[in-house]
Amino acid sequence: MSETYTLGQLAERLGATVSGAADTRIAGLATLQEAGPGQLSFLANPQYRKFLSDCRAAAVLLTAADAAGYAGNALVVANPYLAYAQLSHLFDRKPQALPGVHPTAVVAADARVDDSASIGAFAVVESGAQIAAGVTIGPHCVVGVRSSIGEGGWLAPRVTLYHDVHIGKRVVIQSGAVIGGEGFGFANEKGVWQKIAQIGGVSIGDDVEIGANTTIDRGALADTLIGNGVKLDNQIMIAHNVQVGDNTAMAGCVGISGSTKIGRNCMIAGGVGMVGHIEVCDGVFVTGMTMVTRSITEPGSYSSGTAMQPAAEWRKSAARIRQLDDMARRLQQMEKQLAAVTSGADSSSDA
Fold first, then answer.
1. 247 vs 265: CA distance, rounded Å
2. Of 65, 66, 86, the residue nearest 12 (C-alpha)
């Protein structure tokens, strides 16, 4: 049976205020629409406030303003979404691996694996690799030659770390991620592509999370660098020698071309593409599907492209866009003609 907590215990953990019965027991979390007895919900987005009055949850995480008009039990906090995030770990059912090396795993004789680490079935830890205390390596993972994983790291099944990949503490990597693959480097000689050896590595900081099927290429010369606290969603492509600053977050399907530098505390929305060899300063928010073609030097929000509209309207707009160059040329010609007429009129007036 799952462990339960009283509202009083949860309030103490959060530093929250209880509104209602502090001895109410909570066994899980759910949305406002789906929560039932024994479950805790939360109101973080104002558009869901309409569901609060009919909510059947045992209690709800609310701000003081929302709690003032709520008849049920509540935990009053400044940020309900953050409070939900903090409590979610109490009810996480993710299996906990036991320390030790599975009999089917292959660990090189000179690899250093802490006794508290867990190496799953059919995993491979190659020569010179270092696995720190409390690391979990899931089934079928590969940790390449001379690679290292810091304390408390967690690799889901089928993660691949190539050689010379260095990962900090408490890093989470989801299934299918490939770290340290060879970057896309070729030199063209008379129409024939000659491969460039990618001799750098990948260096990842502490408290980073990397989503499923995300790829981070190794550097051509120096390492590709991912800072502390970076959060990467699923299916992101980070090319060789990219640098990502601390606490930057990227949503799914972002593509970052080689040698681009992204600052700290940036937010890159889904489907964004960035060309190579540019720099993005700290504190930048790039909206979904934007194509970043030049460096960004000032913090703020940036977008490109056009928003969705009915197809018939979009076709008309697209047709007008194709005419813009011709229209601009005609406008310039008209301005020249107007300037000539104005100049002639002024001359006549002076005479």
1. 5
2. 86
DSSP 3-state assignment of 60? strand
Residue with tokens 């000689």: 189
Chain center to CA of 128: 30
Name the band, by pLDDT with cuts 50, 70 and 90, for residue 5.
very high
User: What is the model's pLDDT at position 346?
Assistant: 66
248, 233 in Cβ contact below 8 A?
no
Q: Known catalytic residue: 240?
A: yes
Strand-strand pairing, 186-189 and 192-195: antiparallel
- Stated as kind and residue range, the H or E segment containing 149 is strand 148-149
183 in Cβ contact with 239 (< 8 Å): yes
Share of the chain above pLDDT 70, in %: 97
- 177 with 211: CB under 8 angstroms? yes
Q: Which of 102, 140, 166, 240 is catalytic?
A: 240
| Average pLDDT along the chain | 95
What Cα–Cα distance (Å) separates residue 227 from each residue in 207, 241, 242, 244, 266?
A: 9, 13, 11, 6, 12
Nearest by Cα to 249 from 300, 215, 210:
210
What is this structure's pTM? 0.90
Taking the CA atoms of residue 203, residue 187, residue 145 and residue 277 in that order, the dihedral angle to the nearest 10 degrees is 0
Q: What's the length of the chain?
A: 351
Band of pLDDT at residue 1, cut at 50, 70 and 90: very low
Residue 331 CA to residue 328 CA, distance in Å, equals 5
- 203-216 residues labelled b (16+ CB within 10 A) or e (exposed): bbbbbbbbbbbbbb
